[in-house]
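We emphasize that the prediction below concerns an isolated chain of 275 residues; any contacts that depend on oligomerization or on bound cofactors are therefore not represented. The input was used exactly as deposited, without trimming of termini.
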Amino acid sequence: MPSSVADVNERAIYSLICSEDGVRARDVARGLGIDRTTVNRYLYASPFVRDLCYRDDAYLWYGLIGQTVPHHGLGEFCGWYGTVGEFLAQDRDAWLGELKRGCARIGRNLNDTRGLFHSFLDTHDAMASLFSDLRQLGAPDPTDWELCFELRIRRARHVRIYADVLLLVPPTPAATATVTGAPEHPAPARPGYAFSLEFKMKGAIDQAEVDQAAKYVPYLEVVLGPTFNVVAALVLTSARDLYTHARISRSTAEVSVASGDMLFNVLDEYLGFLS
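Result of the prediction step, given as a C-alpha cell string:
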C-alpha cells in the first residue's frame, strides 16, 4: 500500500475544489495561501484533479465527487447508492435489480459464471444483518448514513478505486453540554468514518485478500477529504464468531477482519457505542 498518493498541497487543492460549488484558481491560491504558479501546476498535473475535477468556460473548477454530506456525485460511480434507510426499505429482489442496472451503467462486469449475483445477495444480507445488530446494540441511528455497493472510480488511468461496500458515517460537530453548577463545556466532535468493506464468501483469512481490502485506502482518503477517516475491513461471510486484525504485507498497518455476524465490532472500534 503506498504511504502517500498525494502530497499536502495536492490534497488541499483537491479538497477545496470539491468543497465548493465552483472556484477559480486565484481563489484557491488565496484561500490556501499558496502562490498562483504552484496552484496552476497542480490544477493541470494532479492525477486527482485531472481525473475527478473539471473546469468550465468561466474558469471555475468543480469536483465530480463533493466533499460535503451527502457526497454529491458519488452515486455516479456506484452500482447502488443511497441511504441506509433507503436500503432497508427496499425489497431484496428490487435492490438486486437496481444494483445490476447500476453496475451496467458504470461498466462493472456482470458475468455470473462464478456466482457473482449470489455474492451480491450474500453481501446484501450481511449488511442488512449489520444494521439490525446496530439497532439492537444501541448504536447511533444509521438511517441517514450513505451506503454504496460496487464502488468503481476509474475515469482515466491515474486514479482507480474499487470497493464492494462503502459505508459513510458523517462527522458530528462539537456540541455544548451544560453541567449543573458548572460552566458550559463543549463535547468533543467526532470525525466522519468511511468503512471500506471487502466481502469474501470464505471462512479463512487469505493474505492477498487482506492486502486487497487495504489497497485503495490512501486514494479514498484523498477523495473523501480530511473530515473522514477511512477504515478498511475484510468480511468473511462463511466464518462465524470471528473478529481480529491482520497485518498488511510489507507494512505495520493492520486491517480488521470479521465474520458477517461480528461485523458490528468493526464499527464499534471507532464509534464506541458498546462502551
